[in-house]
């Protein structure tokens, strides 16, 4: 039995105050869905099994290019971060794993394993970092890492990724995510083809060090920190990488890493069709890589992404097993609250997508009935599935209202007293 951080009394008290109303709402929704031929308990069962990983860096306060305003009680190290992740897990019951970032989270693997298993947490994908310089690093990544013009710098970046795999093996992780900041700020600064060739050669060395039961995720990003070109700029390049490397290589889609208005759900469909969808970094954005909370700006887009995912899930698409992770930066909110609500938003999009009448949709598509086809999606999206999500949390030991329970528990004030403010703190945007 794993330990919990928020007292069971606090969780039970808040749940008790809400349980009767929730039951009524859940039953009413069940009756409505029943008329549509959908069993509410079946949807709830799927939601209960749905999991999304928490990025270790997400529990720290983020920042912008202009400033970072630290929050109270920020985690001082990975062990504090694991405790914050345990709170998110306890109250949402949707986040059983933590994704580590090396070297930010470097610590004795046995201690890490112990700290996580105390709260029933596991480890998701390992994330390497060759987009910033560590204090003890010999060669700088200012002008790139895996695609750097200098062979010694590339070697150092490859070795770092291989070290991340070794650490991950000790922790029980099964994937490595590689995102690089390599690119250029000015036309002519970099030879596109040569830089990509160097990158591919370096990635092949990393891929060769990957255990058989591991996956390698590469993450594309259109711009930033490089503002003119990036080496892995879009899903097309990402697909080429995954194809070049082999069967264990997959594309990771970070929702914020595309040009505005790009049809991300269609990219998702393409990657599924050609068996190269590795997983997601969920977040939301208005203008660029804003790293806002999932579903906060365009929840319909999140639903449309999940519509593709559920379509593949129900069709039993071969090898379909995408990894789900949040990747957000919290500048003005309590990171724990933002991450809890984002986990819920991702679950919400999943539940709504499960409600799509796929048989009817296919009929409308075949009949070229554009209006009814799109209304079929809207009918699912408009359904308020909150009672399903809340009931799933209640059933699995979580909180009906995670933020209310979290605030009632006074966790932030408690850790603010225990954790003196530190400089840095490792908040980041990846
Ligand atoms: Mn990301």
Which descriptors apply to this entry?
alpha/beta, isomerase activity, metal ion binding, binds manganese (II) ion, globular, single chain, 48% helix, three-stranded parallel sheet, 15 helices, 430 residues, TIM Barrel, Xyl_isomerase-like_sf, L-rhamnose_isomerase, Xyl_isomerase-like_TIM-brl
Describe the structure.
Helix 1 (8-35) runs antiparallel to helix 14. The protein is globular, with a radius of gyration of 22 Å. The protein has 430 residues and is α/β, with parallel strands linked by helices. Strand 9 (249-254), helix 8 and strand 10 form a beta-alpha-beta unit. A six-stranded parallel β-sheet has the order 4-5-7-9-10-11. The model has no long low-confidence stretch (mean pLDDT 96). It has one domain (51-355): Divalent-metal-dependent TIM barrel enzymes (TIM Barrel, Alpha-Beta Barrel). The protein contains 15 helices and eleven strands.
List the helices and strands and how they pair.
Elements: H1 8-35, H2 40-49, E1 54-55, H3 78-92, E2 97-99, H4 109-117, E3 122-123, E4 126-127, H5 151-171, E5 175-178, E6 183-184, H6 192-208, E7 215-219, E8 229-230, H7 235-245, E9 249-254, H8 264-273, E10 277-282, H9 299-315, E11 323-326, H10 335-354, H11 358-366, H12 370-381, H13 386-395, H14 402-409, H15 411-418
Parallel strand pairs: 1-2, 2-3, 4-5, 5-7, 7-9, 9-10, 10-11
Antiparallel strand pairs: 6-8
Helix pairs in contact: 1-13, 1-14, 2-10, 2-13, 3-10, 3-14, 5-6, 8-9, 9-10, 11-12
Bound molecules: manganese (II) ion.
